């Protein structure tokens, strides 16, 4: 089983969107039993809160089922437990490495790296643009899944 943890600042917008979207893509390919997919935050600001209404609305618009989730903070144990820890931007990656105590096993990535891009996924909490975030998350998740299923 491949275990994946998506991480963003608050765990209510980008990481929950990626968790729900990749779960949907894996299910479409009949691979659900091969994956464990979760999400977490680097901060404690939103702990216990559900996904942002903008994420919920965008996923609904696209016909993607929302994974029931409450925001939680990434832990050092997550680094040991997950095969891939995927952040949305450079600040996420720096904070993930701080929480994990480094990245000696090279498990931490930015999502769009898998699509061959150095771009960050903009935080719709600040931009309000859940459409752009969805396009970037979809691009990253599709490329990531293809790299795993090759």
Helix content estimate = 40-55%
The average pLDDT score comes to 97
Q: Provide the structure class.
A: alpha/beta
First-residue to last-residue Cα separation: 15 Å
What is the CATH class designation?
A: Alpha Beta
Q: What fold name goes in the CATH topology slot? A: Rossmann fold
Q: Major sheet: size, sense and barrel closure?
A: 4 strands, parallel
Spatial strand sequence of the major β-sheet:
2-1-3-4
**Total strand count, please?**
4
Low-pLDDT runs of 5+ residues are none
Number of domains: 1
Strand content: 5-15%
CATH homology-level superfamily: Response regulator
Describe the protein in words.
This protein has a 4-stranded parallel beta sheet, with helices on both faces. It is built from 6 helices and 4 strands, in the order E-H-E-H-H-E-H-E-H-H. The two termini are 15 Å apart. It has a single domain (2-149), classed as Rossmann fold (3-Layer(aba) Sandwich). The protein has helices at 14-28, 53-62, 76-81, 90-100, 124-127, 130-149; strands spanning 2-8, 35-41, 84-87, 108-110. The protein is globular, with a radius of gyration of 14 Å.
